[in-house]
Design goal:
The chain is an alpha+beta fold. It has one domain. Strands 3-2-1-4-5-6 form a six-stranded antiparallel β-sheet.
């Protein structure tokens, strides 16, 4: 249960990252850097195994964002994914939508219809993340 809370918190934090949309011809690397990042090494690794297929069971949209309940097809394990308003604005998620988990060397990419919706880093991916507020 604690890992599900960590994953939900990570998804909330991921929604705070806004994607840049200044140009219509963004490169692939730029598009990947604009993904919401779920900063949690404690994500439920069992749910995010390579090639896992998750189904959206329920979606609740509000002014604050969207809350999605995801269920793994193989055994029915469930988790929630909370997205901020900015992260959920461009998504078209409904019950029955398939979310595919792809493992990369630094974590997992959650995608729907070949469109990445979130990135969950593993330990090596988390070591590469750095965030510092710049003030004058």
């Amino acid at each position: 249960m604690k890992s599900i809370r960590h994953f939900t918190l990570a998804a909330v934090l991921a929604g705070l990252v806004a994607g840049a949309q200044a140009h219509s011809e963004v490169s692939e690397a730029s598009a990947l850097s604009a993904l919401p990042i779920a900063v949690s090494v404690a994500a439920p690794v069992v749910l995010l195994s390579a090639g896992a297929t998750l189904s959206v069971v329920a979606v609740e949209y509000s002014a604050a964002g969207a809350l999605c309940v995801l269920e793994r097809a193989s055994d029915g394990a469930r988790t929630t994914l909370r997205l901020s308003g900015q992260a959920a604005a461009g998504l078209s998620l409904a019950a029955g939508t398939v979310v595919v988990v792809t493992a990369v060397s630094t974590g997992w990419v959650l995608s729907t219809a070949s469109r990445a919706i979130a990135f969950v880093p593993n330990e090596s991916g988390n070591a590469l993340l750095y965030n510092e507020r710049v003030t004058r």
